[in-house]
Design brief:
It comes from Pseudoduganella danionis. This is EAL domain-containing protein. This protein starts with a helix and ends with a helix. The protein is of the alpha/beta class and 277 residues long. The chain is built from 12 helices and 9 strands. Strand 2 and strand 3 form a beta hairpin. It has an 8-stranded mixed β-barrel, surrounded by 4 helices. The protein is globular and about 50 Å long. Bound molecules: ligand C2E and calcium ion (3 copies). The site of one calcium ion has 3 residues, from strand 6.
Length: 277
C-alpha cells in the first residue's frame, strides 16, 4: 500500500502538491482553533421586506488564522467536516449564537431569531451535543424558538445519518427549520411537507439572475407562491441591488439578506444597528 501511495504522488501536478500540503497543514491547525480562541462569529442581518426592519440574522463562522489571516468558511469547512472538527466548531458557533441571543433579549429584542448552519457531517454524531445545546439555552434563558437550524436541500435527501429523526428532535424542542440554498438541488414539495420546514432560503444564484433574465423569474416566483400555500416563509439570499429588492418585494417575498442591507457584522455591531432602529 505504501508503494502504491508513493506512485500515486507522481500524478499530482505541482499546484496539487501545494494544495495538498496546505490542506494537511490546516487539518493539523484546525484542531487547535477552539482552544486557541481563533474562531470568530459574524452575524448577517435578515430584513423584513415589508417593514424594512432587521428581525433575524444568520451566524457565519470565520477562522482568524495567525499567519493566513481571516479565512472564510469555503477555505476550512470541508476540512473541518472530513476531519470531524466540524462537531466542535458547530458547538462553538451554537454557544456564541445563544450568548448573542441572550444579549439581544436583555436589550429588549425578545423575538429576534438567529440561524445556524448545520451540515450533513454534524448529523453523524449522536444526539449528545443536542442535549447540551438545550441545557445551554435553559441556562441562558433563551427560548429554543429563537434558534433557526439552517440545513440544505441535499441533507434532507441524505438517508444515512437519521437526519429526519434528528431534525424532528430539534422541532420538538421548538427550534425552527430553514431550508438553505433552495432552488439549487432537487427538493420536492413532498419533502417540504414531510419535514415541516418554517423557512426556505432562495439561493443567491437565483437572485443574481433576477435583473438580467426575465424568464428565470418563473422559478422563484412559483417557489414563493407554493411556499405560502404551505405556510412557509421565504428568505431571499444575496440581495445586492435595489432593483432585485423591488422585484422580490413585488413577488411577495417575506424576508431578505444581502450586501444591499448589510455584510456579516460582529455581535456588537448588530446590537448597535438594532438600537438605532
Ligand atoms: P450560506 O449558508 O449560503 O451563507 C450565505 C453566504 O453568502 C455567506 O458566505 C454570506 O457572507 C454570503 N452573502 C450574503 N449576502 C451576500 C451578498 O449580497 N452577496 C454575496 N456575494 N454574498 C453574500 P460565507 O460567510 O462565506 O459562508 C459560506 C458558507 O459557509 C455558508 O453558505 C454556509 O454553507 C457555510 N457556513 C458558514 N458558517 C457555517 C457554520 O457555522 N457551520 C457550517 N456547517 N457551515 C457554515
Ligand atoms: Ca445558511
Ligand atoms: Ca446559499
Ligand atoms: Ca450553503
Amino acid at each position: 500500500a505504501k508503494h502504491e501511495g508513493r506512485n500515486r504522488f507522481h500524478y499530482f501536478a505541482p499546484y496539487m502538491q501545494e494544495a495538498t500540503r496546505v490542506r494537511m497543514e490546516l487539518i493539523g491547525e484546525l484542531r487547535e482553533t477552539v482552544a486557541r480562541n481563533e474562531l470568530r462569529i459574524l452575524f448577517q442581518p435578515i430584513v423584513d421586506l415589508q417593514t424594512g426592519k432587521i428581525c433575524k440574522a444568520e451566524a457565519l463562522v470565520r477562522w482568524e488564522h495567525p499567519e493566513r489571516g481571516l479565512l472564510n468558511p469555503a477555505e476550512f469547512i470541508s476540512i473541518a467536516e472530513s476531519s470531524g472538527m466540524i462537531v466542535e466548531i458547530g458547538d462553538w458557533v451554537f454557544q456564541q449564537t445563544a450568548r448573542e441571543l441572550q444579549r439581544l433579549r436583555q436589550a429588549g429584542h425578545q423575538d429576534f431569531q438567529i440561524g445556524v448552519n448545520k451540515s450533513a457531517w454534524q448529523f453523524r454524531e449522536n444526539g449528545s451535543n443536542y442535549q447540551s445545546w438545550l441545557e445551554l439555552l435553559r441556562e441562558l434563558e433563551v427560548p429554543a424558538e429563537n434558534i433557526i437550524i439552517e440545513v440544505t436541500e441535499n441533507l434532507l435527501l441524505d438517508s444515512t445519518y437519521q437526519v429526519a429523526q434528528r431534525l424532528a428532535a430539534f422541532q420538538q424542542a421548538h427550534m425552527q427549520i430553514s431550508l438553505d440554498d433552495f432552488g439549487t438541488g432537487y427538493c420536492s414539495v413532498a419533502f417540504l411537507k414531510r419535514f415541516n420546514v418554517d423557512y426556505i432560503k432562495l439561493d443567491r444564484t437565483l437572485i443574481t439572475d433576477i435583473s438580467h433574465e426575465r424568464s428565470g423569474h418563473a422559478l422563484w416566483e412559483a417557489i414563493i407562491v407554493m411556499a405560502h400555500k404551505l405556510d412557509i416563509k421565504v428568505i431571499a439570499e444575496g440581495i445586492e441591488t435595489p432593483e432585485q429588492l423591488a422585484i422580490l418585494q413585488q413577488a411577495g417575498c417575506d424576508l431578505g439578506q444581502g450586501y444591499l442591507f448589510s455584510r456579516p457584522i460582529s455581535g456588537t455591531e448588530l446590537e448597535e444597528k438594532l438600537k438605532n432602529g
